[in-house]
Amino acid sequence: MNLLILPAAAFEPVISQEKTCHSNGAYHASKHTATITDGEQLRHIKMVLGAGVGDTLKIGVLGGKIGTGVIAGLDDDKAVLGDVVLDTAPPDKLGVTLILALPRPKVLRRLVMDMTALGVNHIVLMNSYRTDKSYWGSPLLGRLDEFVLEGLQQGVDTVPPKITLAKRFKPFVQDSLPSIITQSSDKTPAKAVVCHPYADVGFGEMAVQGLPSVVIIGAEGGFIPYEIELLRSVGVQAVGLGKRILRTESAVNAVLGRWLL
Length: 261
Prior knowledge:
Order of helices and strands: EEEEEHEEEEHEHEHEHEHEH
CATH architecture of the largest domain: 3-Layer(aba) Sandwich
Low-confidence stretches: none
CATH topology of the largest domain: Alpha/beta knot
Largest sheet: 6 strands, mixed
CATH class of the largest domain: Alpha Beta
Number of helices: 7
CATH superfamily of the largest domain: SPOUT methyltransferase, trefoil knot domain
Strand content: 25-35%
Number of domains: 2
């Protein structure tokens, strides 16, 4: 947890005669406060950071700027911060939409956290032939916002990715994917790829001409031929990730690493 993200409601501006607006548009008010009540965040402050009254914490407002606050009060139920300054914009996103066949619940949390921390703009979790139908009944799907928050706090970001659930493969590919491809990039034509172990072109070879704006990765068993052909029919190019067959989480991190180098 490299950043404590708070909802806008946690911040309480107090009227002060010493309120100034900096050149970058950030406000600094000596009596501006924020209150932290989340149990995990409080435990992190006390047990991991070992912070107390007078110490400075790195904080951010969900969907907004990043800054600092000084602990003015700390007890079992809350931490009150004073001298709050929010003056730093969150980092830019990677500029990529990642479409992922719904993975095993066991790895869903980690994948959503990692994709969020790395800066993916839009995450789509979709159905596929090799996606176990029981995955859609997992209670973890109701905790996606929690996993996103963990990823944001890890990656020192405040802007959550858009998340879409697509429970029907064919309607999603035919009706929704073309517009996602078009809207995900300002380049013409936009480039979308599906990672496929039997593709003739490698991801690295394709990337020489520019990184794609949409990346599609299948379930553990990959996509069946019908699904690959349907994706190709809407302009998606199949690319390989080398000779090794990777787990979903390894493939996701290997691909996204291209944007970070």
